[in-house]
Write a structure and sequence with these properties.
Length: 357
């Protein structure tokens, strides 16, 4: 994203002030127009509908209601985003929960403020069509496959050590299959799908859109679907705070009112998403994504992600307990962080008091 994205965000905030786009029964405030009290920046790793709650906060005017002008940045990857937040160049991050935990483990204390979903939408597994047609329709069967040169299957993830790799290497480890795959960095949509279609990858980690494209073009089939409750619970034990909003502890100490405004807007977004139809969500956020994605892609991703969104933003201790073994293990080399050191629930509690739920 560039300044064009920033200009759009400010435009939609202003549009909400004049047209009533964003005021719903979720909020108790009757006046949309308020003086801007806070100017801040927030980042996300890539442009993805997985982070739609933040876009809703802009498009529906929830940030404007809170007196906040927010510049949203595409960081070009999770590690870049973590560096931007950790160095204080931007105040907030919306990304995988591993990022604030890594900051805390590296002596830059950060806090998870709220969760935006209950599982990672980015770690479905697609197996190459030729293999699937030969009856290899599970991770266990793929582990027994040997490539023509006798090597183990190649498994493509966006980046080695990233969120996809972290979740799926845990799944593989849990099944006792750690030595059965070669993990390869697949990069963005074009390169990872290219690797699947040409046979470079025997399986890929897949966000929703890649799953749709793989099936439509007969390049591969989904064998692990994060939207399947039984599959997810078997692999990861239940809900986890996967995508979260976070900031440094120093930001909380220096400007708690600004942090509260951000959390209020994000909480209202989650409630609005929970109560809205696919059509309503599409109408709110389509201008942000059209040009990068077509209407069909946007709509089907919204529909796919709908049951995955958190309805209340909560990060409960049992959810964090499900997350801990995924992140804190020898393979990730992450320093273990306690729930108390990782999560600040006070801002979400206040948002609930003001807006209900």
């Amino acid at each position: 994203m560039t300044l064009t994205r920033r200009q759009f965000g400010l435009y939609t905030g202003a549009l909400g002030l004049s047209s009533g786009l964003g005021f719903t029964a979720l909020g108790s405030r009757s006046a949309r127009a308020q003086d801007i009290r806070f100017k801040a920046s927030s980042g996300m790793p890539v442009k993805s509908i997985s982070y739609v709650a933040q876009d809703v906060a802009v498009a529906k005017g929830f940030l404007a209601d809170e007196g906040m002008e927010l510049e949203i940045t595409n960081a070009g990857g999770g590690s870049n985003l973590r560096d931007l937040v950790g160095s204080g160049q931007i105040e907030f991050g919306v990304a995988d929960s591993a990022h604030p935990l890594k900051l805390t483990g590296r002596n830059r204390p950060a806090k998870i403020l709220l969760s935006l979903d209950s599982r990672s939408p980015l770690v479905s597994i697609v197996i190459r069509q030729e293999l699937y047609d030969d009856g290899i329709d599970s991770l266990e069967k793929l582990a027994e496959y040997k490539r023509p040169d006798g090597s183990v299957p190649n498994f493509g993830v966006t980046s080695l050590g990233g969120g996809q790799h972290t979740y799926l290497s845990y799944m593989v480890e849990k099944k006792g299959l750690s030595d059965k795959f070669t993990w390869l960095a697949g990069g963005g949509e074009a390169t990872i799908l290219g690797g699947l279609s040409t046979g470079q990858f025997d399986a890929i980690a897949s966000m929703p859109n890649l799953s749709f494209i793989s099936k439509e073009r007969n390049w591969g089939q989904v064998v692990f679907d994060v939207a399947d409750d039984a599959q997810w619970n078997d692999a990861f034990g239940g809900p986890v705070p996967s995508t979260v909003g976070f900031c440094l502890q120093s930001t909380i100490e220096e400007n708690p009112e600004m942090v509260q405004a951000f959390v209020n807007a994000m909480y209202r977004s989650l409630r609005w998403l929970h109560e809205s139809s696919v059509d309503e969500i599409y109408e709110a956020v389509a201008p942000i994504y059209l040009g990068d994605f077509d209407e069909k892609t946007i709509r089907r991703e919204i529909e796919y992600l709908e049951p995955i969104h958190s309805t209340d933003g909560a990060v409960q201790p049992d959810q964090f307990a499900n997350l801990a073994p995924i992140l804190f293990r020898q393979e990730t080399a992450m320093t273990e962080v306690s729930y108390e050191d990782a999560v600040d629930t006070s801002f979400l509690d206040k948002a609930r008091e003001e807006y209900g739920g």
